[in-house]
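batch job 7 of whatever, protein = 4'-phosphopantetheinyl transferase
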Amino acid sequence: MDVGNLADDVRTELAADLSETRLAKIERYRRAQDRDRGLAAHSMLRRLLSAVTGTPPAQLQLGSFCISCGETGHGKPFLDAPDGNRDVEINLSHSGEVVIVALAAPGVQVGVDAEQGRTVDWNALRNSIFADQEWAATERRTDREYRRLLTWARKESSVKASGHGLSLPLRHVVTSDAEGATWSASMPSGVGRVAGADLDLAPDVAAAVAVLRPEGWPDPPVVRRISIG
């Protein structure tokens, strides 16, 4: 499916999964491609949650909460269960033609981010995104453009897992390679610590999933990928 250029009948089908509030937010996106991608991402999220909970997609109650300001209506998404318990933790990301939804066990603070390859002026972003040691590490790579994009995805997934989002300066989220495709990230004081895993989706896509613990180092996430029709 070309998620940035949906057919009218597909838009209608996917929109039936979403709440009026979410549809209104998506309609405020300036670019038509971003509206279609948002529609695809949130429909997929609801369909996956429907498979987990048994509740039809349109009947699911989703909310969002921003830890930084303490307000609802924006920030990290959550499933608002009638009994107040969280049966599953959720996060999502979309970039270009890629849509990712992450589901995790209750209490696991999870974040996910995807960055489809594009032309980036890295020198202009260096001081706002990269710690000095991260920049130096990418400079030594033959695939430095991809590694910078992957470092960005790691950082974004980390701040999304925390619930703070981009209110946390990405430069102060410092990532380090671990074994295989896993990594860790030190966060600003009081936020917690992150372990993550890279996601191999496509040659031009950098993607990562992160889990956060308030204290101590979490184990790297065990990723199980599923496909839906």
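notes: Residues 32-53 form the longest helix (22 residues).
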